[in-house]
Write a structure and sequence with these properties.
The complex is a heterodimer. In chain A, strand 10, helix 10 and strand 11 form a beta-alpha-beta unit. Chain A is an alpha/beta fold. Chain A folds into two domains: about 230 residues, Glycogen Phosphorylase B (Rossmann fold), CATH 3.40.50; about 150 residues, 3-Layer(aba) Sandwich (Rossmann fold). In chain A, the strands form four sheets. In chain A, strands 11-10-9-12-13-14 form a six-stranded parallel sheet, with helices on both faces. In chain A, strands 5-6-7-8 form a four-stranded parallel sheet, sandwiched between helices. A two-stranded antiparallel ribbon of chain A has the order 1-3. About 5% of the residues of chain A have low confidence. In chain A, helix 4 packs parallel to helix 5 and helix 9 packs across helix 13. Chain B is about 40% helix and about 10% strand. The C terminus of chain B is likely disordered. The longest helix of chain B is centred in the first third of the chain and has 29 residues. By secondary structure, chain B is α/β, with parallel strands linked by helices. Chain B has two domains: about 290 residues, 7-stranded beta/alpha barrel; about 120 residues, no CATH class. In chain B, the strands form four sheets. In chain B, strands 1, 2, 3, 8 and 11 form a five-stranded parallel sheet that branches. In chain B, strands 4-5-7 form a three-stranded parallel sheet, sandwiched between helices. Chain B has a two-stranded parallel ribbon with strand order 6-12. Classes of the chains: A alpha/beta, B alpha/beta. At the A-B interface, helix 13 and helix 14 of A face helix 12 and helix 16 of B.
Chain lengths: ~425, ~450
Amino acid sequence: MFGWEFPPFNKGGLGTACHGLTKGLANHGCHVTFVIPKAPLGASSSHVNLIVADNLTLADLKDVDLKEVDALLIPYISGEEYGERLGAVRKVLMQKGLDTQHVDVYGKNLYEEVWRYGQQARLIAMHEDFDVIHAHDWMTYQAGMQAKQVSGKPLVVHIHATEFDRTGGHPNQLIYDIEREGLHAADQVCAVSNYTKQMVVRHYGIPAEKVTVVHNAVEFNERTPSHVQAKLYGDDKVVLFLGRLTLQKGPDYFLSAAKRVLEHDKNVTFVIAGDGDMTPFIIHKAAEMGIANKVLFTGFLRGPEIDRAYQMADLYVMPSVSEPFGITPLEAMRNNTPVIISKTSGVSEVVRHCLKVDFWDIDQMANKMLSVLRHAPLHRELQRRGKEEVHTFTWDVPAKKCLEVYSGVLSRAS
Amino acid sequence: MVSVCFYFQVHQPHRLRHYSVFDIGKSHDYFDHHKNRVVMEKVASKCYLPANNLMHHLIDKHDGRFRIAYSITGAAIQQFEQYQPDVIQSFQDLAKTGCVEFLSETFYHSLSYLFSKEEFTEQVLMHKRLVKRLFGQTPTVFRNTELVYNNELAKYVEDMGYKAILAEGADHILGWRSPNYLYRPVTTSKIKLLLKNYKLSDDIAFRFSNRGWEEWPLTVEKFAQWVNAFNGNGTNLNLFMDYETIGEHQWKDTGIFNFLRALPAELLKHPDNEFLTPSQVADKYEPVAELDIHTMISWADIERDLSAWLGNEMQQNAMKEVYAIERAIKETKDEALIEDWRRMQTSDHFYYMCTKWFSDGDVHRYFNPYDSPYDSFIAFMNIMNDLMLRIRAHGVEIEPPAGMTPAGSPGPRLPDPAGRPEGQQTLVAGAWNGPAKEPAHQVNRKG
């Protein structure tokens, strides 16, 4: 299995999903070798946040081997960021007194590095014993294809997010090409939602029967950390946004709805947790709308701070423009926080005890926000039923589906 | 002797539109006229018109030996008048045959009996006048919304002058008793109780097209055999169901029309079988025993209780809000305002807020004009807020003060959804041991 990240070093949902899936597979007696790119020590650049999720460790994964490949790939990296990162690594390695021959092993740009990772995957594939190759998202598709070429084993590619989701419909051509090539080379494709499946069918020309929907699950500790002091000072109700501040996540729609809510109810504070390319824009916009005193920015949150943010909130809103799955509503529900989620998300296909909106329908979003804040019975029913529901999403189910996909491709191969 | 007694429920709610917070004080138009029209036109063409035709044909064919009863809500009549007047005409034609009885109920298909006897009485009288005006009959038999029933209601209705009342006859209510006799509710002296034979009723209403059912396909011969078996074990066989069963819940291609077309002749082959309407059953037979039903029962779901409408806190809260403004709203004497408020009492609005089998994954059985029970509640409460503004615009004070009951405050006492008497109730929220596996009676109106 090829991934980009794996807890405890993960930045986004992909690492968490891979961890849960491999654990689920291991519980069904399936042995997994997990390959991730890993940069040399001291090479992580400061502007990239790698979070340490303390509740996820390798210790509980008995049947999973982790293999690390020396590479500079990290999740959600852009071409530009890769350039900076490469510069930083070169500097570190030069300082260590290595010669340029050792320093210049990395690709000159992101795409070359992706290709180089693929070449290394070839070597691994030649020396490992396995039946199926499973590759997660575009950076690993080259690796998957290379492994398939040398081993002749069937390839399953898993799509957690397409380039269309990440860019709001303005894909980078090179990345799109890599995605497309990987999807076509695969023997079967797993998509994290029907929503993503449709993307794959519509934008990548993959026949629908080649795509299996494997909804994500969520894995929770037995104990939910409880923050007694979670509430904000004052009597304001709190509405939370938590996610990367990028076009895909819709923070600007959140802000517009906040404005609409505040016109009707002054006693609401909006908290925006996360960081991203839109941060300056969102801060300016809040000021421009005249609601800056009612909108708090927390910056990027880690580990226990995330649970605390959910517990502080009376309502969590995920207004994503395009969300292949979206695990945060489940995290909020686990923390007893009612949620409003965008209809253009994979999670809205499986969660029922929540409110759903079109991300562009500001009035509806504000209407639902106000209703949850005003009506205690609604708030409590969403809390109670939501918490019940969230515990039904275990990784056992997607793991079983993946095993079915594996036996499907194996029987066709033989 | 087996007297087969068919009663069909005809009802359509005035569905609410997605009324938002931002409409409050700006728009007093609460109803989804488009959806209501579309549903009415569809159900009229699939069910009401062809089914009325069939009934008329059967009455003619059997020379008056085939008889049936309807209970048609005021809310349905209002929408027939508005969107599909020919349906009223066809019911009037049926009334003229003399073989059709019309029953009494609350005009708005409301649960008002549980919250306000005054409002309940007014709605029953409104409905009675409507039946008299349209069909030239004064009803003598009463059926409450969704067959919600207990001893106290029977007594109340007896005092209103009715000779019979209908209720659900499920096993766990009756115990060893048979639903195929008349009973006398305890504390009453005259009124007679007719119980639904839920097995045979549901064989037609729910299982008819179910290919997984061991008796599928249901033929008239088979059904007649089951009915004949009651000879000697009962006097009357009550087949109560939604009229929309014919053609809407069970589509035409299931063969439901052909089944019903052939059924009377098949049943009448047995010399001891006959068809009677509920009041004729009450006239012909005497109660065999007293029946004590002190908890509230209904014909809905496995539980046969009030939980479909009052099972969660949202439903209880919304219901409480509606009846809290009764005095104030009547004081305004604003007819349009009172009419809107009464349309809000229709039980379907509360049914759409039910979360108990929303968890079940069984969406296909579940019809809701809203995205979710939560959305139904939001639209409903926003409208309640607008109603309050309109009351205040008349200079009338609302008591208790408008707005939400703060969390944890007791508020007016609600009937227990499981129908248990006071003191035996558990916390409503904790009363659920999981979703019902098979709703015994779907009160949803498909659209």
